[in-house]
Here is the input.
Amino acid sequence: MNYIRSISLIFFVTLWTPIHAQDEWREKLDSKSTELWQPVPPVITPGSVVGQPPSDAIILFDGKDLSQWTATKGGDPKWLVNDGAMTVQRGASSIKSRKVFGDIQLHLEWRTPTEIKRNGQERGNSGVYLQERYEVQVLDSYENQTYSNGQAGALYKQEIPMVNASRKPGEWQSYDIIFTAPRFSDKGTVVTPAYVTVFHNGVLIHNHVALKGPTQNQGFPVYEVHGKASILLQDHGDPVSYRNIWVREL
Ligand code: MG
Here is the structure.
């Protein structure tokens, strides 16, 4: 019994005493000593409602024109601008932003056709490529079976979205994407991979996922050294529409 009492006492002294001492030490401190007054975050004006661009956003498409975009096959993009949206024109090629970006917060809205003609990957397929390389899949995934790492919101062929938050075809949907660009050493090795966080219609579907490399349809991804690059919207042959595209550099 004495033995147990001794052991208990040792535990009591070793565990309780330092915590107790720390509390006493903390009580003597001025709470102001841990206040930080610098830097002061810059004041911005948030959007009128969630999803609308804040005052520090770069507007890439406000529904009026494609002046911020070029066709990936060269020249001005031939996508149709109508009723506040731009729509993929089959064979017009993908489009990419004229401005190039590193780490960003990106908001955009997309809509797949109401009329359903095909299924699987042939139904409302497009995509948002971060830095022209890393695809967040756009697809009509409302009651449309396909491989899970290729459905709407998938980090294509790399990461399955946590849930399927798809709306019905013909309804507007949103992506809010936080992208951290990969960092490379002078020798060309990956210091840190690209990280992606995605909200689909306000629902978190990827939380700081490390990408394995640029999106590949065949085989496995391998990183290549690159700097800032465009946001690219994919022409996969389906008339997918986009609107309200804005970005904040981080
Ligand atoms: Mg796609």
